[in-house]
Amino acid sequence: MLEIQSDVPLQSLNTMSVESNARLFVKLTHPSQLSEIVSAAESHQLPIRVLGGGSNIILPDYVEALVVLMANKGIKIIGEDDQSVVVKVQAGENWHEFVTWAVSQNFFGLENLALIPGSVGAAPVQNIGAYGVEVGEAIERVTVFDLVTNCEAELMPVDCEFGYRDSLFKKEENRYVILNVVFRLEKVFSPVLGYGPLAVLKQKNDLTVLDVYNEVVSIRTEKLPSPEQLPNAGSFFKNPIVTSDKLASLLQAYPDLVHFPYLTEYKLAAGWLIDKAGFKGQSGENGVGCYEKQALVIVNPEHASAVSVMKWASRITEVVEDTFGVALEVEPRHW
Ligand code: EPU
Fold it and tell me: How far is the CA of 198 from the centre of ligand 1 (A)?
């Protein structure tokens, strides 16, 4: 029996730890509950908002919606050949636990994405990425419930329109409820070690997947605050993309500007820009500030509201725009 609750606090369900309340709230433990949830939302004339691990979202004080917490669990191997294995994972599984399971089975491809907070169902939404790997590369298909057509559908990677921290699920906001994700993981280990701090592993003899996983865990633990200790939502802005002309003029003024080629353009390190603009370790209203070791992460030690968080973000955006002529785009979603 579905238990729909009223006026439910969401503070412990978002890693930024902003105070927020949902008008209605339900925990989905099995995909079959979705049709009943959709009917309930219709009868209350409320939209549906889906919550996964709450690690990439800035919640408003009040959510005038039926909030659905994805809590369906299960990891199942559904196909296998000499090269790879196909695994279906329910949306409510914890991302890092799934990566840890894959590594323990010697299934390769996700080890660079260890310790990313959040749920499996949220991973395709922002196409989570780290240390040279994006999750879209390992996705075979995504099962969704389409709230427009009221039907279940299977989306192939091409349908998902994966890009840098982007996908169909961001473009068509609130249309799809991701029910499960099917991954193709490799049985042949080909480590991705191009990202600076992982390059040390290239020297290592008999490198194993566990070595890569442990190194990623240790880099992240060193550089990024754990939300339990210091509320945050990971990188708060995307790394901006600029033309080669823009890059050339910036390099004249700032020869040490951190940049990487990206398709036909260049990606700048937003963390570097924010740091250079003087925000690293600084804070504003109600304690909201930039993490002392990584300026791209906005931290919320005093559990301030979304208003204070967005005020701080706007200040950063303005100063970065004035200083470098570069527009920053907020990465987490806000309802
Ligand atoms: N930098 C500074 N000052 C800072 C922060 C960074 O100078 O305060 C410089 C660093 O020295 C480095 C460069 O900026 O040269 C890039 O920094 P880092 O390697 O930490 O990576 P990032 O570009 O800031 C991205 C992702 C992270 C991901 C890492 C590793 C985005 C928006 N962020 O961060 O993803 O873990 O690369 O691949 O693409 C997330 O999305 O929540 C996230 C943490």
Answer: 14
Are 150 and 204 found together in one domain? Answer: yes
* 331 included as an active-site residue: yes
Same domain, 169 and 277: no
Task: Render pLDDT for 228-241 as a digit per residue (tens, 0 to 9).
Answer: 999 999 999 999 99
Among 190, 205, 223, identify where a domain stops: 223
Please, what's the largest Cα pairwise distance for the chain? 64
- Crossing angle of helices 209-223 and 95-104, in 10° steps, is 150
The model's pTM is 0.97
- Note down the domain range covering 62: 5-70
Residue 235 CB less than 6 A away from ligand 1: yes
Domain-terminating residue out of 70, 101, 126: 70
Neighbours of 256 (CB within 10 A): 7
Considering only CA atoms, which residue is closest to atom 34 of ligand 1? 235
What's the total number of domains in the chain? 3
Task: Determine which residue's CA is closest to atom 13 belonging to ligand 1.
Answer: 269
Which element (helix H / strand E) includes 252? helix 244-253
Kindly give the distance from the C-alpha atom of residue 77 to the centroid of ligand 1, in angstroms, as a whole number.
33
Q: How far is the CA of 297 from the centre of ligand 1 (A)?
A: 9
Q: Of the candidates 326, 117, 112, 300, which has an alpha carbon nearest to the alpha carbon of residue 237?
A: 326
248-284, pLDDT tens digit by residue? 999 999 999 999 999 999 999 999 999 999 999 999 9
- Here the CATH number for the domain that contains residue 302 is 3.90.78.10
Active site annotation includes 235: yes
165 counts as catalytic: yes
